[in-house]
Amino acid sequence: MSSAHDDLKHVPGIQFVDHVAIAVKQGELEGQVKAYEMIGFHEVHREEVRGTDQVREALLQIGDGPNLIQLLEPLAPDSPVQKLIERNGGRGGLAHVAFRVKSAQQAFEAMTASGFQIIDKGPRKGSRGTTVFFVHPKSRTDNPFGFLIEIVEDPAGK
Q: Around Cβ 142, how many Cβ atoms within 10 Å?
């Protein structure tokens, strides 16, 4: 029997946790950013992401390390983040965990070949100039992750 760790260790180039994404209710992004700043985080990026995502994001850095918290506020009723909030009984919460890779295309090909259920048809443009794709929480019927996974390539290598 394999584990999630075993499944992911064969994905080429996974380097570290890029970010943990947290859904926040519409109108609460500013308050959440301030709350995180009160405990020592600092904002490093803000962007509105349209297309299928329909979110406003704020990225907050933890110290000087590469790990980030991504706060996601839905911009529209059909935003996947809004649908997540509705499934959570109107509360925000964990949206996804993102892993940094050297090559999104190589990771996509390896995960597809290994039977992972990929949500996107291929790597696509993400926020802050990244290339991303999403992996379904129930991707592995033998060992479901239980949460949405994002795979992130930063072309700047930051």
A: 9
Residue 115's contacts (CB-CB under 8 Å, 6 or more residues apart) are 140
Q: What is the pLDDT of residues 120-155, one digit of tens each?
A: 999 999 989 999 999 999 887 777 788 999 999 997
Q: Give the DSSP H/E element, type plus range, for residue 48.
A: strand 42-49
Amino acid residing at 103: S
Q: Tell me, letter by letter, the H, E, C secondary structure of 78-128.
A: CCHHHHHHHHCCCCCEEEEEEEEECCHHHHHHHHHHCCCCECCCCCEECHH
As a whole number of angstroms, the distance between CA 152 and CA 102 comes to: 8
Q: Which fold has domain 4-153?
A: 2,3-Dihydroxybiphenyl 1,2-Dioxygenase; domain 1 (3.10.180)
**pTM above threshold 0.90:** no
Identify the helix (H) or strand (E) that includes residue 9.
helix 4-9
